[in-house]
Amino acid sequence: MRETILSIRKRQRFASRGVTLVEVLIVLAIMAIIAGGAVALVFPQLKKARVKQAVLSAGVIKTTAEAYQQIDNASSDGCPTLKDLISAKQLDGKKTDDPWGQPFIVHCDGQAVSVSSSGADRKEGTPDDVLDHFKDADIVRVADL
Predict the structure, then answer these.
(1) Which of 27, 39, 127, 138 sits at 20 to 30 Å (Cα–Cα) from 9?
(2) 109-125: pLDDT as tens digits
């Protein structure tokens, strides 16, 4: 009888060491809630980072286009295209697309060069277009759209 009591106690101790399915599900639910909160915090920053990247890349293309204009005045209209900059080896062909996969657009007004991106909607002339001269307030405005 004494042995059975000892063996029952051993079994109880061994059984209490395990984790039940309910406990595992509770931990998984808590982890899912934490992951959902992290995504909600990170996603707006991702949009803002894409807009910042587009502004920086547009600024690089603008500087390159201005330098190309100064060096190569033989061009007919004076406004270099992305193809002109790539063929003159002034610009890397892999870095001519915005973060949304669309090529940047180079505009010229006389000697003034501006570069723009069509933005997340990939349509030119909409409020989410990104320009090379954007300030922080503009970046936040476009990222919030």
Answers:
(1) 27
(2) 877 889 999 888 888 88
Helix, strand, coil fractions of the chain, as percent rounded to 5: 55, 10, 30
Dump pLDDT digits (tens) for 35-86.
998 888 888 888 899 999 999 999 988 988 888 888 775 555 678 888 888 8
Candidates 77, 76, 97, 78; CA nearest to 86 is: 97
Q: How far apart are alpha carbons 66 and 60 in whole angstroms?
A: 10
Q: How far is residue 58's CA from residue 36's CA, in Å, rounded to a whole number?
A: 33
Taking the complete model, does pTM exceed 0.85, yes or no? no
Beta strands per DSSP E along 1-145: 105-109, 112-117, 130-131
Question: Residue 81: which region, alpha, beta or left (left: phi > 0; alpha: psi -120 to 50)?
Answer: beta
Which of 126, 86, 88, 45 lies closest to 116 in space, CA to CA?
Answer: 126
In one-letter notation, the amino acid at residue 9 is R
